[in-house]
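To: structure desk
From: M.T.
Subject: fold request, one chain
Message: Could you run this one when you get a chance? Sequence is below, nothing fancy, just the single chain.
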Amino acid sequence: MIRPRLTRRLPLGILALALATVSADALAIFQNGGFEQNSYAGWTLGGGTNPGLSGSQPFTGASVQILPGAAGPAAIVGAISDPRAPGIVLPRTGQHTARLNDEGGGALVTTLRQVDTVTSADIDPTDGLPHIRFAFAPVLDDPNHAPQEQPYFFVSVKNLADNSVLFEQFAYSGQPGVNFQSGSGSWKYLPFQDVDAVLPLSAVGQQIELTVVAADCALGGHGGYVYVDGFGSAQVPPPGGGGGQTEYHPVPALDGHGLALLALLVGLVGWVAARPR
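Reply: Done. Structure tokens follow.
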């Protein structure tokens, strides 16, 4: 009695193993991209202090200077309200959103980095090209210092194969031409900005580096921080907020290795199912 029941159940077990194996083989880019582990697992936090931006305007990521020091403040937040930026709905997606730096000042800088390899799982079937997608929202005090001394944020995506910049955005608090919204007191913010960086097909197999920087003012008395979420290759879902929002999970396409493995295991399931009992 026991043996026939095990034989009937064996194909389902093999199929489950097949799906689990293929899913692991075809993970999309970025580990813990939605911070749903309620941690910074897979990411590198760093920081130091802000001596002010170098050079003259217009400032870019090349203007960023960070004096060596400990990693700046960072937190994982859930369904909270930000009193300094009432228009930002948290979490942006899933149950958790990352916050880099804080409102406390101290000329502190917090950095977030991850290096990953683009694979065929990151190709969007709508255009046949790899994509890097995520969302960010800076919240910066505006003390009206000189531009090089203001709180700022910086976000970049770079291809390490040729050092080409795939996406970059920099702004200091109150920067002309940036559509900051007014928060409480002297605070200014941007609602979540959804990024869709389209990569050439040649980027498959190459490493990309994602960097986010959030900085207090250089004089130490005013803070600045950035919320980030939804890092991956699938589209970031429309904002809905609330801790009960469906968790964001990219659904990657299978690459050639994954398809071959799936075909092999499905064939094995069929062979086991067809064996005489």
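Reply (cont.): The longest strand covers residues 129-141. Let me know if you need anything else for the meeting.
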